[in-house]
UniProtKB/TrEMBL annotation:
This is Protein lin-52 homolog. InterPro entries: DREAM_LIN52. One of its GO terms (cellular component) is DRM complex. GO terms for biological process: regulation of DNA-templated transcription. It comes from Gadus morhua. PANTHER family: LIN52 FAMILY MEMBER, PROTEIN LIN-52 HOMOLOG. Belongs to the lin-52 family.
Length: 115
């Protein structure tokens, strides 16, 4: 078995790395689009810095934007703590709603008027 030794700074090493293969990039059969429609989508996207804000952002108020910025600046642990707090709040609201519905049932305020 014969081992070849290349010196990293020699012209032989660099010339051994050259490829003289000719590739025709014009053929769609040789270079198909990996994900159909991506090229058209990328062309249709405009630079968000120079364009107007997206539709979903146009409906936000200043308080909403401030909340997004605040949530975006939280660490993962702080964000998880915030989510846990929201889950607890939703649970407490569910309990309170259940109590109020039961109360309304006992007071007969939820029945439909008889005709």
């Amino acid at each position: 078995m014969m081992l070849m030794k290349f010196s990293p700074s020699g012209d032989d090493f660099e010339s051994s790395l050259l490829s003289f293969e000719k590739l025709d990039r014009a053929s769609p059969d040789l270079w198909p689009e990996q994900l159909p429609g991506v090229a058209e989508f990328a062309a249709s996207c405009k630079n968000p810095i120079t364009d107007s804000p997206p539709k979903w952002m146009a409906e936000l108020e200043n308080d909403d934007i401030d909340m997004l910025k605040e949530l975006g600046s939280l660490t993962t642990a702080n964000l998880m703590e915030k989510v846990k707090g929201l889950q607890n709040l939703a649970y407490q609201l569910g309990l309170e709603e259940s109590r109020e519905m039961t109360r309304g049932k006992f007071l007969n305020i939820l029945e439909r008027p008889k005709k």
